[in-house]
Amino acid sequence: MFKKMIPFLVLVLAVVAVASAFAQTEDEIIARYIKKAEKQQEKSYRTYFATISGSYGKLSDNTDYNRFHTYANGNINPGGPVEGIWRSKQFAANIGTMATKSLAVNVGFAYWLKMGGEAVGDFDFQISPLGTQEDFNLVSEISVYGIAGGVDYYLMNPPNEEGLIKSLGIRLGGSVGYYWTKWELWEGMSSINLSTGFEESNIEPLKGSTPGFSGWVGFDYPTGLWGLVVGLEAEYLYLNFSTVKSYNSLGEELYATYSENPDDRVELDFSGPRGKFQIKRFFRW
Fold it and tell me: What is the CA radius of gyration of the chain?
């Protein structure tokens, strides 16, 4: 009789065990479901940031443009008013996102304040335009702008899960960009015609474009105000416009030189160390 009851008892025990298991884990199942939903919700958010910045750069004293300025001043009387370039000021705006916990990627636009200068007065030109010019606008100004994409790797204190930097963050970064320049020269300034080898007056400003590269070490620190972060960067930029040219009415290429030698073509080299100040805001979206 007892042997006949064994299968029945086993079935009863199995049913009780299953019911007990469901009863014991009901709260756990709900908790796991909530936790899974929270994780999915968390994954749907990403940390982004926006940055505005200003930078100040030291340029080499011995650039082609400064040699051009010395050469031009030797042929303009009085006063040698054409100015050289030794510093540059740049403003930029960037947006980006955290690709990983420590790696940030960004893209942005940069604009440099005009470099060089202009003077209005009476000048005796020994180079074109010839003779004395009264109330003449002697201008030699250069503008630069560009776009660039970059990365930052946080060595210490990247943004947390809430998209906030809680203490000093240290990062290494670099960027690759493409830049354009325009060089406005005074009316009647002569350039070398690449096709003929002779000098002739520029009709329009000289222009050029080139890639640029930079690397930096950066520091971020929270201000505690509206989630804003202050950033500082010590950067080196390589940016050399090796081909800056204009065209005459026939479409022939003209280029400026810094001596009487046609091969001394002026390159606008703006490479050098830079210091950058940033205001940055991280946010989740």
Answer: 33
